[in-house]
């Protein structure tokens, strides 16, 4: 199915690290895609650091952007990389191939599937060392169009992580759709201001927007109304 934003069928949302705003960015993407008349589906491959009876990232997305079709594949209580959390819990988690098949099936029923990763691009999502990058490769091998959105932190140190991520994607032939700053401060300093110009330079991809700090505390109506002003896919 085609998407009015000209995004691939599956968008893998990764970050330059943890706590950079991937979940809030995913919610903003839902709001923007809906504003263009398309209903997306949101997938969390591996939710860690959340107990079975607690709200996870998908619940945050729905709280901010409104109810949306979702799927969570794995949940582990330790706040660690999925393979480490699974090992500590003494449980087995599905390999990347299984995740790719399920996401491919969802892509047949939804015009766009947003897949939020865990931490950065090469965090291990299964016991075999499979990563979000491997998931993207598996999807493309199956004929499913897939690309990556990189959520970057605003401040000092982000350029190196962003450049490494872009290099890893290029080595695997995975398209980097663009970069979004997930935690833009109200009063940006010199590093933040320079990163607006430097992030596209070091990644070779467009800066698609900036999510303001505190956006995750907004009520649904305000979040949905504001999201299009944060992101620019034109």
TrEMBL record:
Record's function text: Catalyzes a mechanistically unusual reaction, the ATP-dependent insertion of CO2 between the N7 and N8 nitrogen atoms of 7,8-diaminopelargonic acid (DAPA, also called 7,8-diammoniononanoate) to form a ureido ring.
Residues the record lists as binding substrate: 48
Family in the record: Belongs to the dethiobiotin synthetase family.
Coiled coil: none
Cofactor: Mg(2+)
Gene that produces this protein: bioD
UniProt binding sites for ATP: 19-24, 57, 116-119, 182-183, 212-214
Protein name: ATP-dependent dethiobiotin synthetase BioD
A Gene Ontology molecular function term of the record: ATP binding
Species: Phycicoccus elongatus Lp2
ATP-binding is among the record's keywords: yes
Keyword annotations: ATP-binding, Biotin biosynthesis, Cytoplasm, Ligase, Magnesium, Metal-binding, Nucleotide-binding
Any one biological process term the GO annotation gives: biotin biosynthetic process
Cell compartment(s), UniProt: Cytoplasm
Active site: 44
Major place of residence: cytoplasm
């Amino acid at each position: 199915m085609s998407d009015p934003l000209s995004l691939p069928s599956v968008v893998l949302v990764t970050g330059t690290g943890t706590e950079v705003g991937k979940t809030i960015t995913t919610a903003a993407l839902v709001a923007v895609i809906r504003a263009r008349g398309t209903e997306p589906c949101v997938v969390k491959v591996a939710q860690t650091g959340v107990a079975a009876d607690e709200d996870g990232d998908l619940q945050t997305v729905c709280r901010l952007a409104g109810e949306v079709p979702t799927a969570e594949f794995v949940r582990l209580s330790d706040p660690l990389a999925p393979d480490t959390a699974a090992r500590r819990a003494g449980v087995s988690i599905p390999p990347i191939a299984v995740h790719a098949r399920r996401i491919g099936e969802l892509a047949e029923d939804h015009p766009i599937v947003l897949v939020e990763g865990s931490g950065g691009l090469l965090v291990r999502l299964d016991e075999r060392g499979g990563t979000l990058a491997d998931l993207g490769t598996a999807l493309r091998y199956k004929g499913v169009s897939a690309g990556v959105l990189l959520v970057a932190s605003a401040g000092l140190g982000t350029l190196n992580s962003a450049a490494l991520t872009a290099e890893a994607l290029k080595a695997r032939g995975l398209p980097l759709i663009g970069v979004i700053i997930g935690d833009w401060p109200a009063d940006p300093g010199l590093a933040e201001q320079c990163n607006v110009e430097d992030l596209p330079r070091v990644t070779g991809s467009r800066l698609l927007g900036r999510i303001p700090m505190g956006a995750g505390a907004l009520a649904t109506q305000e979040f949905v109304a504001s999201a299009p002003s944060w992101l620019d896919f034109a």
